[in-house]
Structures are given as C-alpha cells and as structure tokens.
Give the backbone structure.
Amino acid sequence: MESIQDVFVKLLQQSTIEEKISMLKILKDSIDSCTTGHGSRSSSSNNIPIDKFISHHECFVTDDDFLDQLRVELDSLNITGNLSKKPKTLWLSKHKDVHTNTRSNYHSSYLPDYPCISKLLDKVNEHESVKAELDCCNIVCFSDDRKTLRLHADNEGYIDNSCPIATFSVGVSRQIEFVPFGSRHDNVVHTVTASNNSLYIMNPGCQSVLQHRVIQGNSPSSSDHTRYSISFRKRKVSSPNEVVVLSPDAECTNNNDLLATWSSSQRLDFQSRTSLLVGDSFLARLKPELLGKGRKSVINLAKGGNKIPNVMQDLLDFKNNKDNSSIIVDQLFISVGTNDIRNCRSEGVSRFKGELFNLVRHTKKLFPGAKIFIQSLLPLPITQDNYKFIARNIQNFNWFIFQVCSHERLYMLDVFSIFLRGHFRNPMLFSNDMRDIHPNKRGIGLLAKTYISRIHSKYFDPFSPN
C-alpha cells in the first residue's frame, strides 16, 4: 500500500499548475488550522483582549413602535439611492457649525431636528458601557448587499477618542470584521454580527489597536437588503484640523492597567504613525498639513539645496531627537539627487550610485518598520550650455534609483513622466524662467496630488510577505 507521501507526490506530478496551486493552498490552510487551533492565524496581534475594546448588545431598544418610527425617519433622509459599491453617508450634529470630515468641510445637519435619532442618542449616552456625552453621528446606508466599507479606523482629528464610539444597526444583519494594525488584512481577530436593533461599542483605545470593515451581505433575495448604521461619536472641543495622536495616555483612560501589562511592541500600536518627507527643495515646497488632510500626521524635513549627505544627516538628527521618540514613521519619502548632479559634466553621475546605496541602507536601519519611497528626478530645463549632459545625467540617476529600489526592495515614486509633454519637459508645469528648475503652482499641485495618493491610498504591496 502506498504511503500518503507517495500518493501526494504522484498527484503533484500529474496535476496542472492550477491544480497544484489549489492543492498547496488546501495544505497550507490545513497546517494553519493544526498549528494555531480552529483555523485561526497565530499572531502576536491576536493577544489583544477584545472584550476590553469591543462590546456588543442585542435587542438594545425594547419599544417596537419606536423602532418603526426610527426606520421611517431614516428612510426620510433619502440616502439610499446609490449605484456604486460605496454606501451613502449623512452627518448629524448638535453643533450648528462647519463639520470637518476626512475629505472636506461642510455643514452637517442639525441632529435635534430628528427626534427619533435624538432620543436614541440619549438612550445610548445613558448606557452603562458608554456613560459619555456623545453629540454627533454618522449615518451610513447600505442599500444592498454589495455596499461595503473597506478596512479603516475611526481616528479622524475631529473625534474625541477619549470617548467610545457606539454604533446602532437598523435593518438586515451585516458582519463587522476587526483586524489589528500592522497585521495582514485577512487576520480577522474578531467579528461582530450587527443585527437589527443591536448596538456595538468600540471603547477608547480601540481605534489605535484595531481596524474594522463591513463585508458584503448575503441576505435572501426576497428580503429588504437595506441596513442603516448610526455611529454616535463625540466631537473634539479643540481645532477640527488637529491631527489625532494615538497614545495610551490620550485614548485609554479606562485601560491603563491593561496597557501596563502589554509588551512594548504591542504598546507601539498606540503611538503616532507618521509620514516623513526628507530631501531637497522639490519636497520642501509641499505643505505637510495639506498632505495629511487632517487624518494623517505628516512631517516635512526637506530643505532647499540638500544633497545626499545632507539628507542622511537630517534623518540622523530626527532619529536622535528625544522629542521624536513617540513617533512611528510608517512611510518615508526621499527626494534627492538634483543638487548632486546639476553640475556634473564629463565625469557623469556614476559616482553617486554608491552614495545612494549607502543612504538607503542607513535609512533602513534607522526606520526598519517604514515603507521607503525614493522620488525620481523631475525633468530639468535644457539650455545651450547644458544640453549635452543634463538629460543624460537625469536619465542615469533615475536608472540608479530604479536599481537601488529593486535591490533593496523599496518603492520608486516615478514623477518624471507626469511632468513631460510628449518627450519634452511640459512648459505648463514650470516657470518661464529657465534658471528656475522648480515646478510652478500648477506643477506643485500635481506633485502634491501624487504624494497625497501615496500617503492615503491602500496600494498593492509587492514586497509584503503576506
């Protein structure tokens, strides 16, 4: 009788590549199930004490007539009509002022104008797990099963994260999945079934440790697919543009004893996550508060005239500054090279390749957990005096950047091509003065848009081991 191992080897030899991939996936899932128990993935993030951060309460409202009136009031908001996969939202607030959300400023609707939602808010504030003065809410309408919310945390600067966030559900049930920060996206450590008339509460500190998402529904085809999510929150008294600093002292006022028992690596999740910019005058012209859009901390260390050694020194100074000890740099953007190569003529730019490698390797040691981006050089003005070498130097240095990023498993931020018109430098994006190498206002806007996209988007990570 053949052994299981021999049978498996024969199957692999006789299978197509698609069948082999499927078999290996099944084998991996089986190993994960055996080693971690019940199919859950082992991770240090799974040690998070969920019950300290999340609570769930079924049948929150006992008055059926009130629930019917609440549903009528929600339907009157007219936020169901949307053909995209993204659900519609509406903000209500007790404050008659400009509301700042993650994308823009606008006037939220006045919450007291909606009696049923106001009454529900009073009941939520009285609940023993809340005991706060929540004063605004974000209403999200999932009008069909396709509507989802991607992985995110409710840690915007206008939210008082010393208070809980309480979410009440009306309509069909949906699954809310929770994933630890810094973990693979399929590492779901907790799931809440947000059924009709249920309330789940995310306690202070939750938004620093866990992200959450709403997955697609699977309600019967004959039923009403609509779900309303009413997320009650507390507005910050301070400036709405203030960026939230995620720290245990600021957020976990009720969980200090818990935090004291955590390892240092777990407590790091509560610190400020920051995008750091360093380099020359191209980056120095970008305003960090605009790049952050009120939801991400951005620090810009770039200075005009910086060369590769200057950038290395700026990074060392930042790292050695004790005032920065609580900052976790999760993205690091480097713009360098223009000032190094501008006056290189016959000798070319090959001598800078070693300096660039040295900069990158030191940067990786200083910021081991950061995703590092190196910006390509922009096209420089070509004159009769420099046309023989300037284009060649830019192309060669950009090729060096590509080689370094490939070898060191970093990201190359290619902005060279977007500043071209055809094969030449786009004059609409630069000053008419050929002595000025910098983009004009329109060009800086294009560069800023590129950085905003990288800072905030959930892009594919080709280097992730997950």
Remarks:
- Residues 17-36 form the longest helix (20 residues).
- DSSP finds 16 helices and 20 strands in the chain.
- Residues 35-45, 98-106, 238-271, 460-466 have pLDDT under 50 and may be disordered.
- The two ends are 39 Å apart (CA to CA).
